[in-house]
Amino acid sequence: MAKLQELSYREVPRRLQMTPPRLYLSPPHMSGREMQYVQEAFDSNWIAPLGPNVDAFEREFAAKVGAKHALALSSGTAAIHLALIHLGVGPGDEVIVSTLTFAASANPVVYLGAQPLFIDSERTSWNMDPDLLAETLARKARRGKLPKAVIVVHLYGQTADLDRILAICNAYGVPLIEDAAEALGATYKGRSPGIFGKAGIFSFNGNKIITTSGGGMLVSDDADLIAHARKLATQARDPAPHYQHSEIGYNYRMSNVLAGIGRGQLQALDDRVRRKREIFETYRRALGDLPGISFMPEAPWGLHTRWLTVITVDADRFGVTREDIRLALEAENIESRPLWKPMHLQPVFADCEVAGGGVAEALFRDGLCLPSGTAMTETQQRRVIQRIRSMR
Ligand SMILES: *Cc1c(COP(=O)(O)O)cnc(C)c1O
pLDDT digits over 12-69, tens only? Predict the structure, then answer.
């Protein structure tokens, strides 16, 4: 291909337009407040893991979501892993998990030699179906062995039907872990997800609504759970002047530098939720009239952050499939993604039990996540909208 300098003046803008800058699904969006805390870490030489930013981030995060205790970790996956260890999950146990989710929700179950059992989505929130959960627990109770825990996922910025799910878990005495990795800033009946169950987990991975580049948080009102997880996350050191260990530990703590980023990001959370919802509204107004295009519903019980704007495409009515749309956007250097492929369809979980599955399968077949970055300009969003509209 010719170098730009060798092209005619007419050809240059045409070539440049052929590769507009890539529009990502949900890239990091710094607020400008992060550097102050990162600078403090450098100035005080608190580069090592732990330190004042970590303590402050835990305090500020717990206050934000309304939890009694919070533990900053290297990832959301680590948070799930530690919660499961604390609940005593081990070889031969079963743990119930939403099927429509990212593999990180289920992988820690397997780290512990236990077996995930997947539950389908309902249509109101696309999260775990409480009726299927109730049926499954009733069946397991009759057979004499209950699962060790339930991991409910709050998908794409929206909470599951927590009151019903909690009531069912409580009826059987099975602890609930909330995977709120995608739902920071959402509400269920006015309160944050993550604080209803025995433990809640959040993620600050690069694509999440706030990010520390990588990181996670475990929250709980149970001081013993957090204290135990804190110990496990620092190689399970016993309180002794020498190094002594009476259980197996992990290196899962968050660094003081990254916690500084988290503190700055947390201050921007409300703005991010507002902007995410505004981006969703713009898509809805611009695409909502197209036959066959529907939007992820907002359940009556809470605020959906619209972390990602998700549409479903009825190919018969719209004329092309969601994959056609995805490829057309990709050709314009616009990233969009199918929904999570349900866990019960994953080769790695092929042997696992599943209750239902048809709802998640249909959502996976028809669903598409659109670019939802809070720093996206109106012009960029218009590019996405126009390309989709032009396909009819
Ligand atoms: C991102 C995510 C996780 C994992 O978080 P990490 O911080 O990347 O380990 C877990 N569950 C869900 C639903 C997620 O989207």
Answer: 555 655 667 899 999 999 999 999 999 999 999 998 878 999 999 999 999 999 999 9
Please list every protein residue whose CB sits less than 6 Å from any atom of ligand 1: 75-77, 101-102, 104-105, 153, 179, 181-182, 203, 205, 216
Picking from 134, 104, 136, 143, the residue whose alpha carbon sits closest to that of residue 118 is 136
Minimal CA–CA distance to 181: which of 94, 55, 297, 97?
A: 97
Residue-range domains of the chain with CATH: 34-266 (3.40.640.10), 269-390 (3.90.1150.10)
**Residue entry with tokens 């921007």:** 268
pTM above 0.90, yes or no: yes
Cβ of 390: how many Cβ atoms within 10 Å? 8
Q: How many A from CA of 11 to the centre of ligand 1? A: 44
For residue 392, pLDDT over 90 is answered with: no
| Ligand 1 atom with minimal separation from the 79 CA | 9
